[in-house]
Amino acid sequence: MKKSKKALALGVALLALGATACAAKDTKSVQSTAATTESAASAGESTAAESKQAEAEDDKQAAAPEQLRVSIESIRSTRERESGGETGMGSQDRFYEYPDWAMLPTVPDGATAALTKALDAYADTQQQALEAYAAAHQNSAEDDSLLNRYAGDVRLTRSDSNYLSFVRGTDSYSADAEDYTYDSKTGERVLLTQIVRDEKQFDSAVDQVTQETGMTELAALAKEGFPANKLVWALGNEGLELYLPKSDGNYVMYIRVVLSYESFPDLFTDRVKARPAQYAAVLVPNQQAYIDGKRIHVSAPSGQSGSFTVEVDNKEHTFKKSEESGDLLSLVFVKTTEGDFLYCEFVGDIADDSQLVEVNLADMSETTELGTPDLCTGFDLQRVTDPATLFLNARLDTLSTLTASLPVSVGQGGKLEAQGSYQYLGVTELHTKQALTLSLVKNGKESGETVELPADTKLFFYAGDGKSYVDFRLEDNRVVRVHIASDENGPDGSLWKVEGKYYDKDVFSGMRYAG
Fold first, then answer.
1. Buried b (16+ CB within 10 A) or exposed e, 206-236
2. What integer pLDDT is reported at residue 427 of this predicted model?
3. Is 220 domain-assigned?
4. Among 6, 225, 295, 478, which residue has the least CB neighbours within 10 Å?
């Protein structure tokens, strides 16, 4: 689906916020070990020594960090919304939805115990916030507006052995977005004033970037919020990301402003600037990026056109795209041992939701043959940090029309290699109309065991291959597999044969399809 709508369609995947903020844990500043003297000069020397000690500690840790393979899970509140409506095939059905959900970053076993503990605490806080929000909105169950949804969306921006950073609620259209940056070694939550220690340099950098991008009206907001740690921010792989709110009176949009490490090297310590040997970053469309020693700017005419321009270090290169494709939607930069690649996504033509063009920055060649299924469109921009664990959005029609994500890695020549099945956010559900016996799934494979489910069992979309099966999570967190086969001539608008003997309309309620 089009990125202009993705915040709304991942408003099945990226929604609205309204909740309690997790209080920032102040990190203790380095204390001087020098004895206090009565001399002001000595005090000044102590402060200078303290600053040098802190910088020396940062420099010790400035070697290239390792990527952390962060996963994203989802949780939901107990508030369920039920409604009736058209299925998209001319018949009535019941629909079920849990509107209050949150995405939770989780780190692998190799992460420090302190970081794991910090994210466990974040998860606990989110579960409490979800329940509090649900309790406060029980009487507005029929209000489907964006502002009547908890803002559980998360945008992961950096995930390595130095820092883990993400923002919550920036795609929610509410005013309550929050930032979370952790020291990956200590698990301590980091403040912006601990990342940027020179306010004057920060103000100057903000002025320069907002002037270059024509957003000078946001400069004052950034400069006023900095000293009080009132800004929504994150560390990214390109630079420091500021999320500055802009409201039309009803909804709030967050404008992302990037202060790149390479444009403003003196603004950051070496530890902040150090990135893994391989990394990925979401660049801001139609703005100049400075990353991996390259100045990159992509421009495309508004509306439909058959070409676009990539400028690298003041050299322009023109590339082809579909004549019917439209505006530039997103840009993803990827650095791997194979080279540097730029993935440009455009509004699609009649046949496709969007078109993805890969540009090889070594030889400036292009291709649209990325080796991915036709169902896939552009990248899931909520988790672009590691070339080995990227995700493509896909619209699947298996037992419902839903957006799913396909895990991929960047391989030779920038080709994208699938790394598993499609994954769902996990908050859309079906109910069984009759008892069913289904296979249990463990670690993505059928275990050989079965379970009998009674009528009116809740099934939450979990994973699938887009053609022959859908995995569902049960309320007790077990996963079951439903085998399906396409049958467009089924009775009463049924589209799938289930377990080789049932029609989908006979065994499930809650299915919905795009018209």
1. beebbeebebeebbebbbebbeeeebbbbbb
2. 83
3. yes
4. 478
